[in-house]
Amino acid sequence: MNQVRILGTIMLFMAFWSCSEDNQEVNPKLSTLGKGFFVLNQGNYTLANSSLSFYNTDSAKMTNQVFYRTNKVPLGDVAQSMMINGNYGYLVVNNSGLIYVIKTFDASFAGKIEGFQSPRHICFVQPDKAYVSDLQLPGIHVVDPVDLQIKGFIETGKSAEQMLVVNEQVFALNWSNYYTPGDNNTLQVIDPIEDRVADSIILAKEPNSMVLDKEGYLWVLCSGGFMNEEHAALFRINTQTLDVETRMNFQNITDSPFGLTIDNSGETLYFINRDIYSLTINDVSLPEEAFVMAGQRNFYSIGFDPVMKQVIVSDVRNYIVDGQVLMFSNDGTIIDSSKVGIIPGQIIFNY
Description:
The protein has helices at 3-8, 10-15, 66-71; strands spanning 36-41, 51-56, 61-63, 79-85, 88-93, 98-103, 109-114, 119-126, 129-134, 139-144, 149-155, 159-166, 169-175, 186-191, 196-202, 207-212, 217-222, 233-238, 244-249, 258-262, 268-273, 275-280, 299-305, 310-315, 322-328, 334-342, 344-350. The chain is mainly beta and 351 residues long.
């Protein structure tokens, strides 16, 4: 959930308590999870009801509450994002101000990193070095994921969101907010050797997601602003020259796309703009027809399964009851669906 969507729904979340039920049988300890994908369920702000689910592609079974069932402690307040590094998963828990480390084969506890104000995303620069963005601070934490310690801080002048390593540089999407006012339309380039901002690229308001294609181009999706201050846009950036080579503007000022992802071949892009849309990296205009219509669903996050070759999408429903995860073939046909936790967010593949 991006910063504004969090703040915009605080009152709703504080007014309700979830009535969700865990449909899994009582199991004192999980066995090996196997191959498949995690679903990080964010939970309601301040209610500390986030959770972790796992879908095993061999058995076609979703197991919910895997963190709690294995470790006998709750995951915390707003599970924002997760990244896998080697045999470990790093779960960034935003409002709890920490990162849990788990073993990916069974979700068992392996450590935690504390001392953050409002962590959002983690990006591994090297095996023993990671960056962590923070909603409430104008910069990026430098973290040792082995010693589980914060080692430094990179001043960026504004809040950062998603980060991605490309050509030995770190690209960081920027935001501005109540805590870190400023321009919210930039992509910063971080030098990971000197831990400093080396360059900046002006885009459209509120860049929220980015992917790298098979040709080495970076694609960045911008919502246009929470209040629809300008038209949303999709950018293609040359990562060698840092030039914006393509800009595609969305037609309607009310469009608010997010969740840009790419298939395993690096050729087809997918994103959510209420419905799900797709386009190839060679297209010169945005798609007019949806890949999958939302109907009564409330699509919230999206990923592409590199092994099963399926588009995986979450439906948060009304943000209060348990959500769903749906799997679609490459022609938009629904294959399967599973119940997960409250506000199913990021989908993380573990093969």
